[in-house]
Every structure is written in structure tokens, then in C-alpha cells.
Amino acid sequence: MASNASTQAGSKRWTYFHSALQLAVQRSAHKWTYEDFAECFSLWCDEQPENAATIFSLISGRLESSITENCEELFKKYNVKENLDNLQAVVSTARARKQTGYDGKDVWREDLQPRAAVRARTVPLLERERDRLRAELSQLTDENSALQSQMQRNVHAREDADADTAKLLDTLDKALSRWSKLPLDDIQSWALQTAESAGGKA
After folding, report:
1. pTM higher than 0.70, yes or no?
2. Cβ neighbours for 47, distance < 8 A, ≥ 6 positions apart
3. Which of 7, 1, 5, 25 is nearest to 79 (CA)?
4. Is 9 helix (H, G, I), strand (E, B) or coil?
5. What is the pLDDT of residue 186?
6. Cα 57 from Cα 137, distance rounded (Å)
């Protein structure tokens, strides 16, 4: 039974199953002997024995090939190899646990429903994932709070800077207003007279 499935390495259970099926296909295809064939076509076999033997071999070979192809289609349709490999893994794990004296909640019992067995395996995984997500959410919440506090401090600092700038501008406006109200002509005349007086004394 040379096939695609036979060329794929698999578990011991798959190898045994495939070998047994291969032997069954060969025996089934060749169970019809040439003598049986000759009884059905006795006259032709007597007249052309060589041709009859060739045709018989072709029919047997074709029968074996046809059964093999049908088996391959069933293997692919129902994932036979993958399922047998998974079964072998489950059985090996169960045997290893039994040897170590494992007595966990997921040990199979006759009265144990498949749904309960699945829950015994999946619930702890889901709980661990829940705890991980909670821890991650808590960390993100803390980081968001820190960022929000920093943003608020930046906003307050900006508001303080804007207030200081506004005060400075008000001071400058007042100084400019007062400067514009000064009698500049009188100041210039006084400055000129003072300069002339100081020059005359020198």
C-alpha cells in the first residue's frame, strides 16, 4: 500500500494501523486466485493462457490500487493520521501519569462525562489567562493614571506660565503708557540745557 500516508512519519499507533490495513488490502486484492479467474473464463484461459494471466495480474493490481486510493481519500477526509497520533499522545500521557501515581481531577472515570473532563482541563487555563489579563489591565490603569497626572501638571504649568506672561505684558503696557505721557520736549530741552551748563563750567 505505497501511498502518501505511508510515506509520512507518525506515531506507533498510526504505523501499526497503517501496516495492518496495508496487509488487509493486499490480501483482499489477491484473494481471488488465478484458478478462480480461470473457472470464470475457462475457454479463454485454455486458448490464451499467457494473455489471461497478464489480464488477471492487471486486474489484481488495479483492484489493490483502487482500494488504496479510496483509503487515502478517507484518511484525508477524516484526518485519520492526525487523530491516531493525538490518541497515541493521550494514551501515552495517561500511562505516564498512572506510573507516577497521578490522581488529579481530570483522571478518567466511567461515570465522568466528557464535558466535565474538558472543563477540568480548560477551566484552570482560562483562570490563568483571566488573572494575566487582570494584571495587565491593572498595570495599564496605573500607567494611564500616571500619564493623566503628568498631563494635568503640564496643563497647570502652562497656565501658570501664561499668567506670568500676561502680567509681564501688562507691566510693559503700563510702562509704555506712562512713557508716552511724559513731556518729551521739556525733557529734551532740560537735558540740552544741563549739557550746555556742564560744558560751560568745564
Report:
1. no
2. none
3. 5
4. coil
5. 72
6. 72
